[in-house]
Design goal:
With 167 residues, the protein is of the alpha+beta class. Helix content is 52%, strand content 20%.
């Protein structure tokens, strides 16, 4: 006895159950993948910009601190002789000993500009100057950033006012 052959409708149903995805399902999956990949690329770009900004902000802080420390060690006469508004020579801050350091410094030198401003304060009979160091650089995205700090330098030392008031 032969088994009856399945009807054409049953054949179609069994074929559909074994069939792959429809073109609409593939298009939706491709769109979702495209959105995921493109948003990941945008997030990576933002992360690289933030990382670059953090690194350069740290370098700018090191430049400022180094220059302030060098000025702090000078005598009053030498502080008065410093050029106000002069650009700071970054080679004095970051010496270049090896070829790698020279390459890194060249990139940094093209990126950073440091300026020192010295302003005598007339309210203190010109025995106190205000020193400002400003570092400017361009970020990875071309945006200009700057950081600055100010300090005051007294002719007879930091605590001159304390000794004159106490006597």
């Amino acid at each position: 006895m032969t088994s009856p052959s399945p009807s054409p409708i049953a054949k179609r149903r069994s074929f559909r159950s074994r069939a792959g995805f429809t073109i609409v399902e593939v298009a939706v999956a491709a769109t979702v993948m495209l959105l995921a990949i493109s948003s990941a690329i945008i997030v990576l770009q933002s992360g690289f910009k933030a990382l670059d900004n953090a690194r350069k902000t740290t370098l700018a802080a090191q430049i400022i601190q180094s220059e302030m420390e060098q000025i702090r060690m000078l005598s009053w006469t030498r502080v008065q002789a410093l050029e106000s508004g002069g650009e700071i020579d970054l080679t004095t801050i970051f010496p270049q000993n090896t070829a790698l350091e020279q390459k890194v410094f060249k990139q940094m030198d093209d990126t950073f500009t440091a300026i020192r401003t010295i302003t005598p304060l007339a309210a203190y009979s010109n025995t106190v100057v205000e020193i400002t160091v400003t570092v400017t650089w361009k970020g990875l995205d071309g945006v200009t950033h700057n950081r600055s700090t100010s300090t005051r330098y007294c002719q007879n030392g930091l605590y001159n006012y304390y000794y004159t008031l106490a006597s």
